[in-house]
């Protein structure tokens, strides 16, 4: 699988698009708001440039990127006012893989000024200059000592590639019956996914250490797992794998294709993230926290049924917006409606016995210097 070619969120502004189905990712901004604000405040105490250079790595095409940029601008201006300094200009870089739907996010940029004005209740235009930077953040993107602040949300759980060790020399798949590192994956598969994440995240930190000024900051939001490390039996990826397996048993997709397919995803624990930051050594870790959010609630009363159905429908649309392009590349576009209709039913069935939760790690780090 050529991850750089096929990985992207569902484009456009239609019903199934990422632009219309990224509410769950948007919750992370609310959870991380205090950490983001404090990180910006500390940045402004150490450097007060006339033009602040900011990058959103893995910006995708939905409204969340604009929301976080509005927050960053507001927190920065507030800090400058507190320090009695003239408000800065902003040079903002939106980065994602070349297949990302940059057009949708560019068309929405006029809303950034409106969001900032509504949030602050003032009619002042912010001097903000925005560029798109297509490319993988597992490679260099900017000149040395160029950026003041980097933000990345729900992107770093995506690996640069599916681990090569998942296929034996004879071509046999080691992770048959799974589409990611699940609780039933063999130990060597789990080790391969962890090894790939460790390599990718360390590379990411090393590259950013070259591009960020000394005392510059990063706030990273990473889709994570609980500290125990064992994947949850009701995880969103586990349910998707079960749905695909059902379709393979019915002959709707090729079983050989499913056995060979793996999502390039690894959800680390907070301990893993902390250790990799410390081991790489370029950044000082200031804050790291875990947050849990309900993807779908537990349906413990009959009167909850309508609300849970609505949540299941929204949840299925959310996951479809994230993985449809990569799944359609592998199994064909024609099965997507059926796949996610079945997936929605799987979510409902699980909700009858337990809530479905997702976890994130939020970290604030500072470039040493």
UniProtKB/TrEMBL annotation:
A Pfam entry, by short name: Methyltransf_7
Name used for this protein in its record: Uncharacterized protein
GO-annotated molecular function: metal ion binding; methyltransferase activity
Presence of keyword rRNA-binding: no
Keywords: Magnesium, Metal-binding, Methyltransferase, Transferase
Signal peptide coordinates: none
GO terms for biological process, alphabetical: methylation
């Amino acid at each position: 699988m050529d991850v750089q070619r096929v990985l992207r969120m569902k484009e456009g502004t239609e019903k199934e698009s990422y632009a219309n189905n990224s509410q769950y990712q948007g919750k992370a901004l609310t959870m991380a708001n205090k950490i983001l604000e404090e990180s910006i405040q500390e940045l402004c105490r150490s450097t007060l440039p006339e033009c602040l250079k900011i990058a959103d790595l893995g910006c995708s095409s939905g409204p969340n990127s604009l929301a976080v940029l509005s927050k960053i601008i507001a927190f920065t201006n507030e800090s400058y006012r507190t320090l009695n300094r003239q408000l800065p200009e902003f040079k903002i870089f939106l980065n994602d893989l070349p297949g990302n739907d940059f057009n949708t996010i560019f068309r929405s940029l006029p809303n950034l000024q409106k969001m900032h004005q509504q949030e602050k209740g003032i009619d002042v235009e912010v001097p903000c200059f925005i560029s798109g930077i297509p490319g993988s953040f597992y490679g260099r993107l900017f000149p040395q000592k160029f950026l003041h602040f980097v933000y990345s949300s729900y992107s770093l759980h995506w690996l640069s590639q599916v681990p090569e060790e998942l296929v034996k020399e004879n071509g046999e798949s080691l992770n048959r019956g799974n589409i990611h590192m699940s609780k039933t994956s063999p130990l060597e598969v789990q080790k391969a996914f962890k090894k790939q994440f460790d390599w990718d995240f360390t590379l990411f930190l090393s590259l950013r250490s070259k591009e960020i000024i000394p005392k510059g900051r990063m706030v990273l939001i990473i889709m994570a797992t609980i500290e125990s490390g064992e994947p949850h039996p009701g995880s969103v990826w586990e349910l998707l794998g079960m749905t695909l397996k059902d379709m393979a048993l019915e002959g709707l997709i090729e079983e050989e294709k499913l056995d060979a397919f793996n999502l390039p995803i690894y959800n680390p624990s907070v301990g893993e993230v902390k250790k990799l930051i410390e081991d790489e050594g370029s950044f000082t870790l200031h804050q790291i926290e875990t947050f849990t959010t309900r993807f779908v609630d537990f349906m413990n009363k009959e009167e909850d049924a309508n609300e849970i159905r609505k949540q299941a429908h929204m949840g299925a649309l959310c996951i479809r917006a994230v993985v449809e392009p990569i799944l359609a590349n592998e199994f064909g576009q024609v099965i997507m409606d059926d796949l996610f209709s079945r997936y929605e039913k799987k979510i409902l069935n699980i909700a009858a016995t337990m809530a479905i939760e997702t976890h994130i790690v939020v970290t604030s780090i500072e470039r040493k210097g």
